[in-house]
Design brief:
By secondary structure, the chain is α+β, with helices and mostly antiparallel strands. It has eleven helices and eleven strands. It has three domains: 62 residues, no CATH class; 215 residues, no CATH class; 71 residues. Strands 5, 6, 7, 8, 9, 10 and 11 form a seven-stranded mixed beta sheet that branches. A two-stranded antiparallel ribbon has the order 1-2. Strand 8 and strand 9 form a beta hairpin. 25% of the residues are buried.
């Protein structure tokens, strides 16, 4: 196998966090899958699923044996990525999706449903090994998990609810994938927003400390080019609790002998505790476009049966949301234009204020020069009159007056009005 090109060394040595479809396609036809998988630290079967999810053609069985005897075949072209399809693989297990097109109503897929279902993996790429991160997660006092990893699917659950939530998320994501709709973490450059999560079953004005985990980027599904945000969380209920070991425990879960209140008046602590039932929150991640819908479980596991109606509902809602986004885009553009006009008017007024102030400052400065000139002339006239009067005195007295006059001139200083005028700056009209 020495004749296999070593282009892998140039494409993967840097071990980027995100690898594009084009890069993976080149690697697939440059080296065996086992070599590529070894370089990225994953199994070849796992990497094969990534290639399937990204719609990247791979060499058939026996291809590299034929290459070894000089029978290399021309590889098929890389198919063009469809709108909303996955276009890159993130090595931390979260597929990337990059779509900068404006939202439009979804176009009906021409592919056969059976063909798409055959390509579905057992586990959606966004959920691969996600349980490992929940195993290491810290818990809130109420029991909700806070994983240290934030670049993963938007699941907010308790330790006992992880398996149920991941299973539901997997079935939901694969149902979208089966319809040709990709589920992934949002593209960082698209600046998608995430709706906040209130896990309480009953709406309340009670303050809840924001201790819930939140992902670094929203989990989104692309219905055509329209994007919906997806959050799956475990519903809580407000119940009586005790806190024997720095963790809230339901009073109903304690032995009967320990359920009694620890306080004389019978007061009991209450907290919002996870119920094991899930809620799917679907929302608009577009700035300025408010839309949100929730599907909840009346009893554990019955949310799975609602998946077909969820997919159908979002498909029907996609063109409506696309219209709202367009309306908001036009409104934002008009608002931006109006703001620019206001700023331009403000700048014009400020420039006029500065011009008028400069004129006033120049006028004030000129008046000072004129006042100085009048004072200089008054002093000069005074000195001239003294000199003229001294000419009528006797020699000794006249010299005495002239000496005193010189000292007075030295004390007053320069009497040149032109120097003061030269220091005046005329305004720019």
């Amino acid at each position: 196998m020495e004749d296999i090109p070593n282009s892998l060394a140039t494409t993967a040595d840097s071990l980027e966090d995100t690898i594009t479809r084009e890069s993976l396609y080149e690697q697939a036809w440059s080296a065996p899958m086992t070599k590529i998988a070894e370089r990225y630290g994953v199994s070849s079967s796992y990497l094969a699923r990534i290639f399937t999810n990204l719609n990247i053609p791979r060499p058939p069985v026996g291809y590299w044996a034929q290459v070894a005897v000089g029978k290399r075949k021309t590889p098929p072209a890389l198919p063009e990525a469809q709108p909303g399809a996955l276009v890159a693989w993130s090595r931390n297990g979260a597929p990337e999706q990059i779509s900068r097109s404006l939202p439009k109503a979804p176009i009906r897929s021409r592919g056969k449903l059976a063909d798409r279902l055959e390509l579905l993996p057992r586990r959606h790429p966004l959920l691969i090994d996600i349980e490992e991160h929940f195993k290491k997660a810290h818990e809130t006092d109420e029991g909700y998990l806070r994983p240290s990893k934030r670049s993963m699917a938007d699941l907010i659950v308790s330790r006992s609810g992880v398996s149920h939530a991941v299973d539901f998320a997997n079935q939901l994501y694969l149902a979208f994938m089966g319809k040709g709709f990709a589920v992934a973490l949002s593209d960082p450059t698209s600046h998608m927003g995430r709706a906040s999560v209130d896990h309480r079953e009953q709406e309340s004005k009670r303050y809840v400390h924001p201790a819930l985990w939140r992902p670094q980027r929203p989990t989104v599904v692309h219905i055509g080019t329209v994007v919906f945000g997806l959050s799956i969380y475990e519903i809580s209920e407000y119940v009586h609790v005790k806190r024997p070991d720095k963790k809230y425990i339901r009073v109903a879960d304690l032995p009967v002998t320990k359920r009694r209140s620890d306080y004389r008046d019978g007061w009991m602590m209450s907290a919002d505790m996870p119920t094991g039932r899930l809620c799917l929150q679907v929302y608009s991640p577009y700035y300025g476009v408010d839309w949100i819908q929730r599907w909840t479980e009346n009893k554990p596991v019955d949310l799975v049966s609602k998946i077909p109606s969820v997919v159908k509902s979002l498909k029907a809602e996609a063109p409506i949301l696309a219209g709202k986004v367009e309306i908001e885009r036009v409104r934002s553009e008009q608002e931006r234009h109006r703001h620019e006009l206001q700023m331009e008017e403000w700048r014009r007024k400020e420039a006029e204020k500065r011009r008028l102030k400069a004129i006033q400052d120049s006028r004030d400065s000129l008046e000072v020069v004129i006042q100085t000139w009048a004072k200089v002339n008054s002093i000069r006239s005074f000195f001239d009159d003294i000199a003229l009067s001294a000419d009528r005195l006797g020699p000794e007295q006249r010299q005495s007056v002239l000496d005193r006059l010189e000292k007075a001139k030295d004390l007053i200083g320069d009497l040149d009005a032109l120097k003061h005028f030269e220091g005046w700056e005329p305004p720019e009209l």
